[in-house]
Hints:
It is found in: Cell membrane; Endomembrane system. The chain is an all-alpha fold and 339 residues long.
Amino acid sequence: MRFPVSCFSISMGFGIQTVLWKTLSTIKWLPFLHIPKYVNLILWCLGSLITFIMFITYIWKCILYPGLIRWEFSHPIRSNFFFAPWIACMWLTVGTPHAIATNINPIFWLLLMAPIILLNIRIYGQWLSEGRRLSESANPSTHLSLVGNFVGALLAATTGWKEIARFFWIIGLVHYLVLIITLYQRSRTAPVLPKGLRPYFFLFISAPSSASASWCAISGRFDMVSRSCLFLAFYLYMLLVVKINFFRGFKFSVAWWAYVFPLTSFANASLHYSLQVGNPAIQGFAVIFSFVACVTVFMLCLSTMFHIFWGTMFPNDVMIIPIEKDGRSDKELLAWTKR
C-alpha cells in the first residue's frame, strides 16, 4: 500500500549507472583508474534484479489497491513517474555488458517504447486540450515525460534506427522548450513543490543531459547540438549547486534518489564530450562529475538500507494520512483502496 511509483527512481539510478561504468571501462585515457569491465556486469545484474522486484511489487499493488493506483495516475507529480520504469529498462538495455550481448535487438525498443508513446499521448494531449493544462500542473518531475523520448531516441540509435531516433528526439526537444519556459514563468499562485520533494529540482539537469548523449549516438559524434545541450545542463547543474541551502533541512525519503539519475546522466554526457575534445582539463572535470555521481549513489544505497532495516523507508502516503485521520478502521481503508 505504501510503495509509491516514485520508487522506480531507484531503478533509473542503477540503470544509468550501468551506462556510466560501461563508458568508464572503455575510455582509453583512463588507464590509471583501471576500471574493470565486470563492474558494469555487477551493476547491470543488481539493477536488473532491483527493477524486477519493483515491477513485481507494484503489479501486486495494482491488483490489491487499484484505488491508490488511480490516484497516483491522476496526481500532477506521481503521474510523471509512470515513465520511470520504462526509462530504467531502456538504460539497462543500453548499458548491457558486452559479455551478455554485443548488439541490441530492435524488439526491445518496441517493447519499452510502446508504454512511453501511450503515456506521451495522454500527457501531451492534456496539455493541448481542456484537461490538465501545463501551466497549472508543471513541476520539475514533468521532465521525466521528456526524458523518455530522449532515452528512447538513444536506444533507437543504438539499434541502428537513426530516423526513428531523430523523430523522438525532436519531439522531446519541442516539448522541453515548452516546459522550461513554463517552469521559469510560473506565477505565485502556481502549486509549490513540498519541501521534502525538493530533490526533484535536480531533474532539470536530466533532460538536456539525456538529449546530449542521445544526439551523440544519432550523429555519431559530439557535435554542436550535443555540446549545446551539455552546456545547458552544466549551467543548470551549477545553478542548483550554488543553492545548496535550498536542499537542506528535510528528512530522507525515496525522493532523494532523484539526485542520482540527473547527476549520472550529466557525468555520462561529459565523458563523451571529453572523448571528443581531448582536453586534459575537460577530462579531469568529467572524472570529477563521475566521482560525484558514484559517491551519491553509494551514500543513498547505505541510507536506503538503513531506513529499510528500521522500517522507516515507506511512511504513510499523503493519500493514506487524511483517511486514517478521519477515524476509519483498517478494513474500511482497505475497502476504499480496492475500489
